[in-house]
Amino acid sequence: MFWLALYRRRRMVAFLAAGMVVFEALIVAVIRAVPPTQLFAGTGPTGPDALKAFSGSTGDVSIASYPGLLGAGLVHPFWIAMQLTAIGSLTAAAVAADVESGTVELLMVRPVSRLRLLAERTTAVVAASLALNAAATLAVAGGVALSPALHHAVPLRGVLAAGLTGCAFTLCLSGPALAVSAAARHRAQVIGATITLGAVGFAVNFIAMAWHPAAPLRYLSPFHYYTPGDALAHGTLAWGPFAVLVGVGLAGITVALPLLRRRDLAP
Length: 267
Description:
267 residues, mainly alpha, 14 helices, 75% helix, membrane, ABC-2 type transport system permease protein, transmembrane, transmembrane helix
């Protein structure tokens, strides 16, 4: 079931991974062509306050810097959309799509335990997310290694740390989406929940960073803990936020199992 889940969406995953490489390579090319000091000339040394959420940082790293611009490529709406596409499609296929189409009963006849069904489909989601994050990380690492200016400002270990943070972020979204899939009867419900988690989470973090009275709301958004800009600048992994992202993802997967065990799989 693991290989079947990936095989059915092999073209989607391949195109998304290729899109990641092209997009991140384009970001690197733009940064090399136009230095941050020129790109944000006239906005002050730290850049516009409203753009802090787009630098992939908690506020310590300015978007008007090499790490900030590279971090922006890892929290760009296009990057988010590609990740949500993979997560939404594969988590919907984990349980809800088979329930909607009635094929889940054929799977159970083999027999296949519900634990095995969830475990293998979850592994497929994680594998696809790892492939997309690896593609983006390799593209950024290649651009940094080939540019002396970027390499001086951004250590390669920071690129690796940013990639690991991206994996934790996608796990954070995948876990709750799998829980929804384990309880839902229609794939549209899972895809809607995935998009809501990503879009609302980004909006909440943006508002919290741009508007001081709403600052406490940032702790409710996964984007507060997903800080690739900080990782790129400091070359280290922030273990606290990383643990929060992984913990939320694992909690969602843990909740999915009892939901799947107790539900009626009849369409």
